[in-house]
Amino acid sequence: MRAFLFTTLLLAPLAAVQAADSATPRDDAAWLREKGQMIFHDAFEREEDGNLAKAIGNGCNSATADRVPQIKMADLDDGILKIASASKEAGHAAHIHHEAGFTDGGAVVRFRFPGLSTGESLQLGYVDRELKGVHAGHLCYGILSQTSITLIDHKTGAMNLEIRKLREDYLARKEKPPADFEAMLNSKKVVVPWKADTEWHELVLVTEGDEMRLSLDGKMLVSHHSEGYAHPMKRWFSFLVPNTVWIDDVKIWKVK
Question: What pTM does this model have?
C-alpha cells in the first residue's frame, strides 16, 4: 500500500509540471486592468491601532501579531506599511494577509527593502485555509531574496500533507529521499537570479490557469507552470516577512 501511495504521489504531479515559461514577456499589470476587477486596494494612509492582529486596519490581519502583543511588527508611517518581524520572539515570520477570492488574477504591490536588517526577503502569494490536505492552506508563492526570485507550488509540493509525511519519514529514518522524489519536489519551483537593492519597485504576481508569473517594474522576470497554481480559490493574499520590508501600496485584482 505504501509503495502504491509513493508511486501515485510521484508520477501524477510530474505529468502535469512544465519548466519555466520562455514565452514572449507580457504586461501583467495591463492584463489585470483590462481583463480584471479590482477587489481590494490599500495605500495605508492612516495610523495603526495598537499591535494586535487587526491593528493595521482595512481588513488586513497580522496572523502572528497576537503571539507578541508587546512588540510592534507593523507600523503605518506616512502611507507606508513598515514591517519589522519579531521572528525570534514570535517563533514565526510576520504573516499579514487580506481576503482575495479568485481563480485567475493577482496582486500589484509597491515594495522596498529598506536595508535595516541582514538578508531582507519577501514572500508573497496565495492561501486557502479551507483546503484540506495542505498545511495551513499554503498554495503558491513568489519569494524574493537578496540574490534570487523563486516561484513555488506548495499545494502539490512540499506543503501537501502526504508529501510532508513522506519527507518526515525519510528524516526520521535518516534516509536520503529517492532521486525521483527530490526531482518531483524540484519540479514544483523555479529559481532565477536577481540582485536586490533598496529602491522602490512595483511587483506583479499573477496566476492564470496552471501558470504563475512575477514581474518587476513592468518586466516579467519569471513564470512557471504547475498544477497547484490552478487551484480554484485563492482566498487570501499573504505576505510573509522574516525581517524588514516596506509596503507602499497593494491592489488585488480578480480576472475570474
Answer: 0.89
